[in-house]
Amino acid sequence: MSMGCEKHDLLSRFMASQGESYTETALRDVVISFLLAGRETTSSALTWFFWLLSSRPDVERRIRDEVAASVWGEDARAYRPERWLDPDPAEATFRPESPFRYIVFHAGPRICLGKEMAYIQMKSIVASVVEEFEVAVDGGYTPRQVASLTLRMADGLPVRVKDFRGGN
What we know:
It is a single chain. Helix content is 42%, strand content 8%. The protein has helices spanning 10-18, 24-54, 57-68, 115-132; strands spanning 133-137, 145-146, 152-153, 159-163. The strands form 2 sheets. A two-stranded antiparallel sheet has the order 1-4. A two-stranded antiparallel ribbon has the order 2-3. Helix 2 packs parallel to helix 4 (115-132) and helix 3 (57-68) crosses helix 4 (115-132).
């Protein structure tokens, strides 16, 4: 950075925002935090999601139907934020859930900076997998929790993945 190299990745931007005040130790800690927070939490959440989804074929079908539909509509390129509101005029207001309701990302001044990125990643992974594959968990499988920074599933989630269109 000090040699005039301008990069636009997250680490380079962080370094530039700190000027010369960052230390290698602080920089290492930031990188480790991003890697652990981003990978561990998202993968754990997806593991638990697919386990829960395996017990609800009706929900899986609704997700698959939604992914398969022209979700954005005929006017996908038009700026119409009201498309996400309830069509009933009496209820046509956006009411986001309280960030304190789902505390995994915390809320208030200590809210997770990667919350929105995690949601985007998880939604796109779920949509991609459910659209193409059926993820089947053995009905008798009961996961064990591992106490760690995130609530992980011991030994992962044993699944059988089948091509949704009938293949293996």
